[in-house]
């Protein structure tokens, strides 16, 4: 995070891509900024599965969540 402005560099990159339509450049820059860190979707999916009580939901709901997120309960 850029400390003197408190604006996350990823926000700047994606804002640029959105306003210019240069998504290839934006995605390449976002991947460069990501480095070895896990993707946002990975972080979000892991947090989701940690918080969901899979025993309390029907199996078809769990399957649906896995399909729409591209992740599966561990």
What does this structure look like?
The model has no long low-confidence stretch (mean pLDDT 89). With 74 residues, the chain is mainly alpha-helical. The longest helix has 12 residues, at 9-20. The radius of gyration is 17 Å and the shape is elongated. The protein starts with 8 loop residues before the first helix and ends in a 5-residue tail after the last helix. Helix 1 (9-20) packs antiparallel against helix 2 (23-34). The protein has helices spanning 9-20, 23-34, 40-51, 59-69.
Q: What is the number of helical segments per DSSP (H or I, 4+ residues)?
A: 4
Helix content, binned percent: 55-70%
Beta-strand content bin: under 5%
Alpha carbon gap, first and last residue: 31 Å
Structural class: mainly alpha
In short:
The chain has 74 residues and is mainly alpha-helical. The protein has 4 helices and no strands.
Keywords:
mainly alpha; 64% helix; single chain; 74 residues
How do the strands and helices of this protein lay out in sequence?
Layout: H1 9-20, H2 23-34, H3 40-51, H4 59-69
Helix pairs in contact: 1-2
